[in-house]
Amino acid sequence: MKNPRYFLLPAAVLMALGFAACNDDDPYFDDDLQTKAMSVSKVYLEDYKSSVPDREVSFARLGQMLRLEGSGFFGVKKVYINGYDTYFNRAYVTDNSLIVSINSKTPVSDCDPEVRNTIRLVKDGTELVYEFLIRNGYSVIRSVSNTLPQPGETVTVYGDYLHETSKVTLPGGVEVTEGIVNDEDGEWFSFTMPSGVTEGGALISESPNGVTQSPAYFNETRGMILNFDGLGSQGYWSWKENGSMINNEDLVDDPLSSGRGKVFQLVPDRLLADGIASGKPRATECWTAGNDDAADDWSRMTSLIPAETPLSEVAFQFDILCPEPWSGTGYIQVCQINNYNFAGIGSDDDNSKGMTYMFVPWMSNGRDGGEIFPFTTAQWTTITVPYVEFAKYAALQADAEAQNPTFQMVIDDRNGATYRNFGMGFVNTDFDYTDADGAKASLVSTLFTGPKIYIDNWRIVPYKFFEPSDYEEPEEEN
Fold first, then answer.
1. Cα–Cα distances in angstroms (integers) from residue 94 to residues 72, 121, 199, 241, in the given order
2. Ramachandran category for residue 235: left, alpha or beta (phi over 0 → left; psi -120 to 50 → alpha)
3. What does DSSP say about strands 118-122 and 78-81: parallel, antiparallel, or unpaired?
4. Rounded Cα–Cα distance for residues 290 and 226 (Å)
5. pTM (predicted TM-score)
6. Residues of the chain with pLDDT under 70
7. 297-331 pLDDT, tens digit each
8. DSSP β-ladder status, 59-61 and 381-386
9. Contact 337/417 with Cβ under 8 angstroms?
């Protein structure tokens, strides 16, 4: 940070600014105070949630409350932070203290360089400009477009206040500093996946707004369920030419030749030829091997995700490629165990005890509806499903009297099942939803003849989000 400097302008110059006349009986506006010089000696962050609610700081962020300590504040009429006219309550102004909150609309990265990182206090007859570092809000990562990318693929990271990201550190300490593309509004940045990343964990980014990180799900394969190339075992039975079962011969080569090997085509060509009839459940189904396969006992994942982990911190991920627009009919049903009919939304599969998830990618609110739009992906894209969105666990999470579900509950539910295959399939049924205007509506399915949709890399991953803070909280004494 620059050393603080003060700029005192002559009273005659400032008098020409022509402040409106004030109440002569109010001592705050006494003429003597309006020419009294000001100084700032320290700045404190006011945060009642912190164990240090009044902390001396050298910078602050949008939305934070500051207390200026110094002299001559009584009588201040205007406060400008980064040139932005900032409201303050003069009831909290004394000669030695002034409290002000940094408005969320205060410009930072797009601020006029002449006033960036300044707090300007103005009276009728004098003013003070105090140099002080102003940052945007905390950098926060909300999602990652592709958490299991191949070298050379583009990864886009979405979040808040990601302006001017200059460095990305990938699991294993692999650093990316070149070729980072930044959104001017700070809502995303992108980079090219380098080679040599062999470990899984968090993606860490650095920008002028601080250091932040994703959940520990980037390049993470230790919770792999099935990748169709040797991790996990696919199971199939009763296969027939016009049947729903997907076997190993239905798998296809990655159409982008990205290095992913074999992938699962959600509706294989043998069924696309005649199309999937409207109203059809269980159009396709793809499963893991089941009870006799060691990979289907998820106790093996507790070294990655401890059994006591809340399910709000666990997610199911898979990668999808949909090169042509998909809209208006058909969706994906995910089953935690093999005990369902792939009957879709509103069926017996879809109740408070159902270990299922319904994915409708062409609705803005998923299965809850909203607007219908064409879903398409130009490259492999990761879909992240928080495990508390599976029907049974969503019901438990919403029940204030129920015990919050943990990963151990998922393990127990799977290991206690008669058939613990994990599965995914295509369903083309009608269903009710809420439209973008909040009205009840019904989706009437139609014949599905495409597009081709490709799926890969079913996996369970950690999903705990990073809570940014500029300061370490003191450890409590025993």
1. 8, 14, 56, 83
2. beta
3. antiparallel
4. 12
5. 0.84
6. 1-24, 473-478
7. 999 999 999 999 999 999 999 999 999 999 999 99
8. unpaired
9. yes
